[in-house]
């Protein structure tokens, strides 16, 4: 098997996970979660998003979170910045780096941000110029890489087109997101093979939702294809807005259990990670989506 010896986990729970949770979490609790994740050995944490609080109320405290962070050396505290105003706000509170996003589906782009794919990418050009001037890394996301809630199947070439444009704009890494979680091992392999013909495999990451229970299988397939960076959310935070009642992001605990079982190094302590997941789940008054987390907790409570 062609598997990497080491994998970087990009923790998206404090941003992508919490933004879909209805229960509002205070800045102090977000800070406690981020600190627990960092102490567990997670070295990349997407800590907030600089978007309009009107549209994403959960992210209204992002400036406060970044201002109060107890930063640990070698930990990246990243922010999502959809426009220049967001980028400037992220820079004002010393975000380590920023992320921008495009979609592989024209319908998704039009219905969500009211513009075409090319128009959406053009909006990021000022951010890329400013980031380069400030020596700030920019990560790129591509949504709907295997399926779209409006168009259905997405051709891999479309994904490759958008990913290549983001990469050529200056994004150092492109995260390929299965936004509605419809991917299978076969569709994921085909998509990664196609994209990696245009972008070096070491510059690609994967971001799977677990709507149909295929996220871990798809991650394993991605690892076999040479992927070495995996996005995930502590406790499986976040719902899937396009599939009612479905789970969202794959749980970091489950990903770590998979990687540990394969002998792949991450530098993350699973016991401390589980504590972080239980902490935020208790704040949300819900059980973790993570099967690994629930299994561990059941053993403790025996």
Q: Output the structural class.
A: alpha/beta
Distance between the termini: 38 Å
How many β-strand runs?
10
Question: Largest beta sheet: what is the strand line-up?
Answer: 1-10-9-8-5-4-3-2
Biggest sheet, open or closed, and with what strands and sense?
8 strands, parallel
Mean pLDDT: 95
Number of domains: 1
Highest CATH level, the class: Alpha Beta
The rough form would be described as: globular
The portion of residues forming beta strands comes to 15-25%
CATH topology: TIM Barrel
SSE run: EHHEHEHEHHHEEEHEHEHEHHH
- Helix percentage: 40-55%
CATH architecture: Alpha-Beta Barrel
CATH homologous superfamily?
Answer: Aldolase class I
List unreliable stretches of 5+ residues.
Answer: none
Domain Pyruvate carboxyltransferase: 7-274
Keywords: Lyase, Metal-binding
Pathway: Metabolic intermediate metabolism; (S)-3-hydroxy-3-methylglutaryl-CoA degradation; acetoacetate from (S)-3-hydroxy-3-methylglutaryl-CoA: step 1/1
GO molecular function, one term: metal ion binding
Compact overview of the structure:
It comes from Thalassotalea piscium. With 302 residues, the chain is α/β, with parallel strands linked by helices. 42% of the residues lie in helices and 16% in strands.
Question: Would you mind describing this structure in some detail?
Answer:
With 302 residues, the chain is an alpha/beta fold. The protein has one domain: Aldolase class I (TIM Barrel, Alpha-Beta Barrel), CATH 3.20.20. 42% of the residues lie in helices and 16% in strands. Strands 1-10-9-8-5-4-3-2 form an 8-stranded parallel sheet. Strands 6-7 form a two-stranded antiparallel sheet. Strand 8 (173-178), helix 9 (185-195) and strand 9 form a beta-alpha-beta unit. Helix 2 packs antiparallel against helix 12, helix 8 packs across helix 9 (185-195) and helix 11 runs antiparallel to helix 12. The longest helix has 15 residues, at 270-284. It starts with 7 loop residues before the first strand and ends with a helix. One of its GO terms (molecular function) is metal ion binding. This is hydroxymethylglutaryl-CoA lyase. Belongs to the HMG-CoA lyase family.
């Amino acid at each position: 098997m062609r598997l990497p010896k080491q994998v970087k986990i990009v923790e998206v729970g404090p941003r992508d996970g919490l933004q879909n949770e209805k229960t509002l979490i205070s800045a102090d609790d977000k800070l406690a979660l981020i600190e627990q994740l960092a102490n567990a050995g997670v070295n990349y944490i997407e800590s907030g998003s600089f978007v309009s609080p009107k549209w994403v109320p959960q992210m209204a405290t992002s400036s406060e979170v970044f201002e109060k962070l107890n930063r640990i050396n070698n930990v990246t505290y990243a922010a999502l910045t959809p426009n220049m105003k967001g980028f400037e706000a992220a820079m004002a509170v010393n975000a380590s780096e920023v992320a921008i996003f495009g979609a592989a589906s024209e319908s998704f782009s039009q219905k969500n941000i009211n513009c075409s794919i090319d128009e959406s990418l053009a909006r990021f050009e000022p951010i890329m110029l400013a980031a380069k001037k400030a020596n700030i890394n920019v990560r790129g996301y591509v949504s709907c890489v295997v399926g779209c809630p409006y168009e259905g199947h997405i051709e891999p070439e479309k994904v490759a087109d958008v990913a290549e444009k983001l990469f050529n704009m200056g994004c150092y890494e492109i995260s390929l997101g299965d936004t509605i979680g419809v991917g299978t091992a076969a569709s994921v392999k085909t998509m990664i093979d196609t994209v990696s013909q245009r972008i070096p495999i070491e510059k690609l990451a994967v971001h799977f939702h677990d709507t149909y229970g295929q996220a871990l299988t798809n991650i394993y397939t991605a690892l076999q294809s040479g992927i070495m960076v995996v996005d995930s959310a502590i406790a499986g935070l976040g719902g899937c807005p396009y599939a009612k009642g479905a789970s969202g992001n794959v749980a970091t605990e489950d990903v770590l259990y998979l990687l540990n079982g394969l002998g792949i190094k991450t530098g993350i302590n699973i016991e401390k990670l589980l504590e972080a997941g239980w902490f935020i789940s208790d704040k949300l008054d819900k059980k973790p989506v993570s099967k690994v987390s629930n299994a561990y907790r059941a053993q403790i409570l025996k």
